[in-house]
Write a sequence for this structure.
């Protein structure tokens, strides 16, 4: 499904990634770990076509991502949902409107929008918060809205980029458990994090990065970086 083939990415002569090679199958739950600057964010940018590799190929299904023109990137990104550490919610829209916005931009019909938004807000446990604005929600609830927004188009892959970085331990585990449930429902999940406790508790596949290189790829891994 996803294949990085000997990928190197350089910025001003410095390699953010060096000869990175890995393959992710459909319905996998994969954590990408490493310290700040190890290359986690660069991998995500390459996967969604925000950056192009200096060398190598990035494949997503039948798409060779690095060869897509800017006008073609929407074809790729409709298969991918992304959540971030800082939620990126629209402050003047309530939970329902934040999730619905992605569908409105895509030109969906209002009845379909209503059905899909209620479905994903129920999935993340926020059916009773659909009229609440971001400032009325806790950090964990904001991240759940962000997850609902990422899932509303039913993507094949959900990328979670440090999704618990701004959350307390209770909300952290609420989000992790939700990601696990989404994976069990059939969505491929890619979790980029430096949270050792989460990785060790999950017991899923772990790709470990150090200085832009893959140093380990364990089917049931632990966070072993110093």
């Amino acid at each position: 499904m996803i294949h990085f083939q000997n990928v190197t990415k350089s910025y001003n002569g410095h390699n953010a990634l060096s000869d990175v090679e890995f393959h992710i199958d459909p319905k996998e739950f994969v954590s990408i770990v490493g310290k700040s600057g190890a290359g986690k964010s660069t991998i995500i940018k390459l996967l969604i076509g925000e950056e192009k590799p200096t060398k190598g190929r990035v494949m997503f299904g039948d798409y060779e991502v690095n060869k897509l023109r800017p006008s073609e990137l929407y074809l790729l990104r409709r298969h991918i949902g992304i959540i971030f550490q800082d939620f990126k919610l629209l402050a003047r829209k309530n939970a329902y409107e934040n999730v619905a916005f992605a569908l409105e931009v895509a030109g969906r019909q209002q009845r379909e929008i209503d059905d899909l938004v209620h479905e994903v807000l129920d999935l993340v446990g926020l059916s009773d918060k659909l009229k609440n604005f971001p400032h009325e929600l806790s950090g964990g609830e904001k991240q759940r809205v962000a997850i609902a927004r990422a899932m509303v188009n039913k993507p094949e892959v959900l990328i979670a980029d440090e999704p618990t970085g701004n959350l307390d331990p209770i909300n952290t585990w609420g989000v992790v458990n939700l990601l696990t449930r989404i994976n069990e429902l059939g969505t491929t999940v890619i979790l980029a994090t430096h949270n050792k406790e989460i990785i060790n508790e999950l017991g899923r596949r772990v790709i470990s990065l150090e200085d832009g290189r893959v140093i380990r790829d364990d089917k049931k891994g632990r966070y072993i970086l110093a």
Observations:
- The CA atoms of residues 207 and 217 lie 4 Å apart.
- Residues 90-154 form one domain.
- The helical segments are 40-47, 73-77, 95-105, 110-123, 139-151, 169-184, 196-202.
